[in-house]
Amino acid sequence: MLFSGCGYSNVASESFESMDTFMKIDIYGSADTAAEIRAEIENLDSLLSAQDDSSEIGRLNKIGSAELSEDTADLLSQALELCKDTDGALDISVYPLVEAWGFIDKNYRIPGESEIDDLLKNTDYRKITLSGGRAYLGSGMKLDLGAVAKGYAADKAVELMKQNNVRAGILNLGGTVAAVGEKPNGEKWRVGICDPENTAAYFGSVSVSGKVVATSGSYERYFEQDGKRYCHIIDPKTGCPTDNGTVSVTVISDSGTKSDALSTALFVMGIDGAKEYWRSHTDFEFILLDEENTLWLTEGAEAAFRMNKDYEYNMKVIKA
Ligand code: AMP
Ligand code: MG
Questions:
Q1: pTM exceeds 0.90 for this model
Q2: How far are the Cα atoms of 94, 152, 168 from residue 160, in angstroms, in the given order?
Q3: Which residues have their alpha-adjacent CB atom under 5 A from ion ligand 2?
């Protein structure tokens, strides 16, 4: 469903695991370019992983300040802008909370109120400084670029395609999909959106060209206790897994970093906050599925969306 490369002799593909997810890239270009893109993504992973003590972010988290490579500094600076612009719904300093809830070592647990309150004191992206390629964290803070890294990787990959004169391709970086150019028959790419209840299926798709489509969902990583689901997206205001009736958010924009950041941030905002945010920033489109099976779509998203048969979500269009 994601691409139709079969039969075209000049398709080069790479399938690999990186950034904690499965990735597949298909480009109408050379095998060398595909390999170069893969190497670039793997390199970014080794710089950005908070779980790896030897990565740049790992070292920053351990020592509290570090010299950053150009890419890491570039992403950090874009991410801080997006934290500010989303009024902290995206907050790249939530890592200690992500750890406390057990999402890193998979020893899931519900931390006590005082533990959460203590960790919240060190959760504030405004206490991160980036100056002259060097980053500084406030005490007790840890960075986590997991919400934006795949999007940034998509942007870098698209850049590499341009440099190598590759006109078209589809890059699926595990829930963040860059659709470059068009299919050989001139049609736009169709990017599927995961059915949260059966992640092997898609409830629908969007028809896009030159866009990055990123989805954040509570089905991606979660645990259940006493019949309640706790998902991996933390509300930085409460220090707890986001629990506002949102099931998944898909964002479509020209920038991978933006699509990835906003899919996480709009998930935290919930439908009312997401609508308001969209109305003041119309440079992206979104699709939000809630627990009532209502599918909220901005006007531009609705124009690109097609629901698959067998799905009967109640569609509501959000107008500017
Ligand atoms: P995504 O899958 O892009 O929505 O990113 C989710 C990941 O980002 C989580 O696994 C955490 O590592 C991290 N994260 C969780 N909540 C937030 C948040 N509110 N702001 C920024 N990063 C977050
Ligand atoms: Mg994200």
A1: yes
A2: 31, 13, 12
A3: 147, 216, 260, 263-264
Question: Relative to the CA of 261, which ligand 1 atom is closest?
Answer: 3
SS (H, E, C) the chain: CCCCCCCCCCEEEEEEEECCEEEEEEEECCHHHHHHHHHHHHHHHHHHCCCCCCCHHHHHHHHCEEECCHHHHHHHHHHHHHHHHCCCCCCCCCHHHHHHCCCCCCCCCCCCHHHHHHHHHCCCHHHCEEECCEEECCCCCCCCCCCCHHHHHHHHHHHHHHHCCCCCEEEECCCEEEEECCCCCCCCEEEEEEECCEEEEEEEEEEECCEEEEEEECCCCEEEECCEEEECCEECCCCEECCCCEEEEEEEECCHHHHHHHHHHHHHHHHHHHHHHHHHCCCCEEEEEECCCEEEEEHHHHHHEEECCCCCCEEEEECC
Question: Tens digits of per-residue pLDDT, 113-159?
Answer: 999 999 999 999 999 999 999 999 999 999 999 999 999 999 999 99
Q: What percent of the chain has pLDDT over 90?
A: 95
Residues at CB less than 6 angstroms from ligand 1 = 90-92, 94, 98, 144, 146-147, 216, 220, 232-234, 236, 260, 263-264, 268
